[in-house]
Amino acid sequence: MRKTIVGVMGGSTADDRTAAAAKELGRLIAENGWVLLSGGRPTGVMQASVTGARLAGGLTLGVLYDDDHEEAAEGLDIVLPTGLGAGRNIINVLSSDVVVACRGQGGTLSEIALALRFGRPVVLLDFDPGAVFMDASAHGARWAMAGTPVEAAQKVREFLIELGRE
Amino acid sequence: MRKTIVGVMGGSTADDRTAAAAKELGRLIAENGWVLLSGGRPTGVMQASVTGARLAGGLTLGVLYDDDHEEAAEGLDIVLPTGLGAGRNIINVLSSDVVVACRGQGGTLSEIALALRFGRPVVLLDFDPGAVFMDASAHGARWAMAGTPVEAAQKVREFLIELGRE
Amino acid sequence: MRKTIVGVMGGSTADDRTAAAAKELGRLIAENGWVLLSGGRPTGVMQASVTGARLAGGLTLGVLYDDDHEEAAEGLDIVLPTGLGAGRNIINVLSSDVVVACRGQGGTLSEIALALRFGRPVVLLDFDPGAVFMDASAHGARWAMAGTPVEAAQKVREFLIELGRE
Amino acid sequence: MRKTIVGVMGGSTADDRTAAAAKELGRLIAENGWVLLSGGRPTGVMQASVTGARLAGGLTLGVLYDDDHEEAAEGLDIVLPTGLGAGRNIINVLSSDVVVACRGQGGTLSEIALALRFGRPVVLLDFDPGAVFMDASAHGARWAMAGTPVEAAQKVREFLIELGRE
């Protein structure tokens, strides 16, 4: 049976609090035996979540913006250059069983919107893009808010149970 | 000199008010001599805006979800199948000089977020996805709200003047 | 009814003979009332074909590798940045009613293979990638060789008649 | 350090000899500790190579044509739906350290051409698309022919040594 993939989205820059949360989230994803998928850049939420997952011995995948293997987060097991630029955002979303969105900007918000559009459950970790946006995206879609990485991992688990994957 | 492109985004379903506004917007885009670009499907905001532009003799482009020319809005001059699914949303955004967003859901919201992320000015026509979302996407980005198609066309013109294209 | 699109593929560098043929081909495409679609870069076969079509008053489209409007062939009417890199090759192919391939390398050959795979007729203009390749790609697909731009335009017309578009 | 990825390309249908070779190749990739990447469909060379790798306990990745996880080869560890259709071919190529091409048609040939274009070494396993095609794609690119899976794995290893990855 294929492995469960949890996508972690978030800004290419991150303040200390966001980076710490992303790292802790990465650790929890690994400890649950889920694969961590991210945009794979060596900065911000992407690097922090990969670092956390790696320290806990998890499997980590990065779907890169660029067309070579160079611009990758340290500690990634599997580096997938696409050369598609922001066109790769849709892959991040569609390939994830559940998406966790940390604080981010336009790129992250586009991924949240696409996840809701394509029926991937979304957990917002310490990030609130507004109920108007979430409701507009979300007719019938599933999403939840979480204040801490532990809460986020719990919400991910609940969505995976609903999906029959736990 | 290349032609100015105004992208019209919005739902694949549209209520009467939204469809009427999209049609009127299409007409105004054509009358201003701008090319209308949309997702090109034969439904909702896409079909309505194409219909309006065509009646006014404008040039209309559709960047399709599918891999053949069939599923296209009636009246499109130029039909561009991509086979990329929602991966084509980024093209809608990057190819537009200015984006006008009518009411829509996740697909439309992903396009707004990407437009703000990549510096394409956005006009929201009778559609408010929330200031929190817009501000989160928009550090330094340009956007405006419009209540009517006439106001939206005016905002588009102002952005084009800023861009040196009018 | 939508406009007929003829895609011109070929190298981003071109020797004098290839550039002259591409320019002449562009002129013939315009004179036949077809839209010229290319990869839209300001070099090689792309620039030459656009120049030819523009001199004859045709409509020209460029589907760009990059994510802004800057790196475009001079004379393009409609510039479509995609930011998809070589991921945009599939759009060149799928959006064309008929593809003409001038001399090129890997990028051009990938477009020929995809065209044959997706049932877009291909005309090879003074370019022979080998019958083994063409036959391997082409179970049931349509392609023809042409020694000159005039012959190529004639072959395009014949394919368009078969497709019911002329 | 990131894992080495060997991409296996080939037809979505395969005769017995090609399927047997793809399965054996998958086994050898796994035994060498390389990750097997393929288009991930449950047919032809894709399914056969995944089956071989899985029986040998290797890690297998599929980059899917479709937008959900359903249409995946049996035995895939990591299933990545892209929704990009043939637009995902470029990912197969760019994400591979070395590409092995089994017998295929237009899709496979487009991947060989892109691999040569982007500097990914190619091993042709019991498949010859013609020297004219390979040379046209290949100015300065690296490729080799192999008659058997054992020879193909040996060629892959040699290319990986050149790349400093073994």
Q: What does this entry look like structurally?
A:
Four copies of one chain form a homotetramer. Chain A has 166 residues and is of the alpha/beta class. Chain A has a seven-stranded parallel sheet, with helices on both faces. The longest helix of chain A is centred in the first third of the chain and has 16 residues, at 16-31. Chain A contains six helices and seven strands. The first copy, chain A, has helices at 16-31, 44-55, 89-94, 106-117, 131-137, 149-162; strands at 5-9, 35-38, 60-64, 78-81, 98-101, 122-125, 143-146. The radius of gyration of chain A is 14 Å and the shape is globular. The model of chain A has no long low-confidence stretch (mean pLDDT 96). At the A-B interface, helix 4 and helix 5 of A face helix 4 and helix 5 of B.
Task: List the keywords.
homotetramer, 166 residues, alpha/beta, Rossmann fold, seven-stranded parallel beta sheet, 6 helices, 40% helix
Please give a quick description of this structure.
By secondary structure, chain A is an alpha/beta fold. Chain A has a single domain (5-162), classed as Rossmann fold. Chain A is built from 6 helices and 7 strands, in the order βαβαββαβαβαβα.
